Amino acid sequence: MREIKICDVKKDFNNEVILDGLNLTIPSGEFFALLGPSGSGKTTLLRLIAGFESVNSGAIYLGKQNITWVPINERRVNTVFQNYALFPHFNVFDNVAYSLKIKKVKKDIIEQTVIKTLKRVHLEKQIYKSIHQLSGGQQQRVALARAIISEPDVLLLDEPLAALDLKLREKMLVELIELQDLLKTTFVYVTHDQFEALTVADRMAIMNHHGEIEQVGTPKEIYEFPRSSFVAKFVGTTNLLKGALRFQEKKYYVEIEGLGKFEVLGPKNKKWACNGCNVLMSLRPEKIEISKKRLEGFSNCLEGTVESIVYYGRSTQYHIELKNGFVMQVFEQNEEHFPQEVIDYDDKVFVYWQKENVVLLEK
Amino acid sequence: MKSNSAKAEVAKRDRSFFMAVPAALWQFLFLYIPLLFIVGLSFLKSLDGSIFKNFTLHNYRELFDLPFLKIILRSFALAFFNAFFCFLISYPVAYFLALRVKRMKNLLLFFLALPFWTNFIVQVYAWFFILDRHGLLNNALLKIGIVSRPLHILNTSAAIYIVMLFCYLPFMVMPIFTSLSKMDKFLLEASSDLGATPWQTFYSITFPMSMAGVKTGFFLVFIPSFGEFVIPSLLGGGKFMFVGSMISYFFLETKNVFLGSAFTLFSVLFLVCAALGIYWIFKKLFN
């Protein structure tokens, strides 16, 4: 098992810069997700690791080996394609056995290995079926089996579940996690779907529209402690309020025009934070309490009017218009059959939050 | 509601059948009916220009006195080798056009189809100027010094093969090009990703995936080549009889339509058997 190191990689297509000096280390044996909007260059990065594209400059290492110019077929890296790219003129067995046949492995060993691998993806009953007879989910499993059979150092997955329906996708996500746990292969999973990335990843990298990596971290770090407003907005939903940072009486506040002063935790290790400079205050909707009554024990409180209510079943989303016109999103769990307090359109409500739940971001 | 939509579905299918009627009618009137005439004629015999009404196998018996088997085999060889050489030359062209050329693909395809824009007879006559004793080819060969005396190409079977190859090339390139273009390019990436060298990818993925095009192209060349009449007569100098020239000889020169019909039927039967045989070999070889 070897880590992937991407050093100052530059790549352009027809003079359009996709990646401009990208650096990233993907630790060995981890389930790593590359999350970014479409056009962020995450697929390009994946294709560079696989060898389908070559870099303009920079280097890619697999362990200590520089694989930048190693041909595709000699890299111990296999890919699960978005459209599966199964060989239509082969059946399931021949598709899965392909890489072993290429290596001229003995027939009986091929057969044993194919059966073992198909069992891992729960497809042993379909072994001699033609590809056209399989459902989308089953084709996905064949693609997976074909890619893991020769035990690569790295498995690349390019939006592998994009074509599946929600229920099946959730099931496959769990299976992928179990498979990675079993194989201990490095999985690099490219997706634009934050739910998938948060679910599967041990660690993830967020890429922005310019092909730059905004942040690398565990899903929890990314979600709870985003380091930029892009990450805060792209992963999950958040309320971003502009204000000025103030330091008064050993406490930190963000002063927002038209709303007042709100206490926050001190900005540790944030070089850009200074007394009086402009900052963004990120506040996740589910970390906000909503009530028509005055509540005790919260460090911050604001008044607003209910503008819209969307009922999701397990939760309800409120849009609260504040005094300065900012519309704040709030999520509430629907914990009770018969809520004691019914909130309706145009109600005057209070929103509350704790200072610990605020993330300060650079303006 | 459901049964209504099902009925509508059936009605739609019925209507679509009617759309095929004009073409079917056309083919029935101008192919199958004349074919029946030929079948009928082949079992009749002429005496002093009048039609013998009795059923007779005389024409077929007479066929065996002619070198007709030799003619059919010669036509078969021409058709088969023409298709085979077309395949050898066309495959790299189609491969290059479909998988390597990124820009100006349409322009190159246009040049490939350009011969279709000129009259067939004109094309064939143009070859006279190339293959003649003092033609372009001999001049060029003499200039370069490859040969010391002009080659005798015109009116030989070499001339027939060269021009046949030229005229039928697009029929082979097009279907192979189409099947290679339609192929999912990710399959090639998947193959090399799984460890295959470019050559291994070619013979286990690319070539099998283009087999449908190869088969189509082969038969598009093979079948008309078997009955080809213009090129052998013009460039072979009439020295070699092929099926096409034999049939025209029967119908246009000797006016022996009865023997001609028998010969036509026999060669068609042979062609069908040969095509089926080749199809079977394709299946055995590549499945």
Which SSEs are present, and which pair or pack?
The complex is a heterodimer of chains A (363) and B (287).
Chain A: E1 4-13, E2 16-26, E3 31-35, H1 42-50, E4 57-62, E5 65-66, E6 77-80, H2 92-102, H3 107-120, H4 136-148, E7 154-158, H5 166-183, E8 186-191, H6 194-200, E9 203-207, E10 213-217, H7 219-224, H8 229-234, E11 239-248, E12 251-256, E13 260-264, E14 278-283, E15 289-291, E16 300-311, E17 315-322, E18 327-333, E19 348-353, E20 358-362
Parallel strand pairs in A: 3-8, 3-9, 6-7, 7-8
Antiparallel strand pairs in A: 1-2, 1-4, 4-5, 9-10, 11-12, 11-14, 12-13, 14-20, 15-19, 16-17, 16-19, 17-18
Helix pairs in contact in A: 2-3, 2-4, 3-4
Chain B: H1 2-18, H2 21-42, E1 45-47, E2 50-52, H3 58-63, H4 68-100, H5 105-113, H6 120-131, H7 136-144, H8 157-182, H9 186-193, H10 198-209, H11 211-227, H12 230-235, H13 243-253, H14 257-286
Antiparallel strand pairs in B: 1-2
Helix pairs in contact in B: 2-14, 4-8, 4-11, 8-11, 9-10, 11-14, 13-14
Can you characterise this structure?
- The complex is a heterodimer of chains A (363) and B (287).
- With 363 residues, chain A is α+β, with helices and mostly antiparallel strands.
- Helix content of chain A is 23%, strand content 35%.
- In chain A, the strands form four sheets. Chain A has a six-stranded mixed β-sheet, with helices on both faces. A five-stranded antiparallel β-sheet of chain A has the order 13-12-11-14-20. A five-stranded antiparallel β-sheet of chain A has the order 15-19-16-17-18, with no helix packed on it.
- Chain A starts with a strand and ends with a strand.
- The mean pLDDT of chain A is 93.
- The mean pLDDT of chain B is 87.
- A two-stranded antiparallel sheet of chain B has the order 1-2.
- Chain B is built from 14 helices and two strands; from the N terminus they run H-H-E-E-H-H-H-H-H-H-H-H-H-H-H-H.
- Chain B has helices at 2-18, 21-42, 58-63, 68-100, 105-113, 120-131, 136-144, 157-182, 186-193, 198-209, 211-227, 230-235, 243-253, 257-286, and strands at 45-47, 50-52.
- Chain B is globular and about 75 Å long.
- With 287 residues, chain B is mainly α.
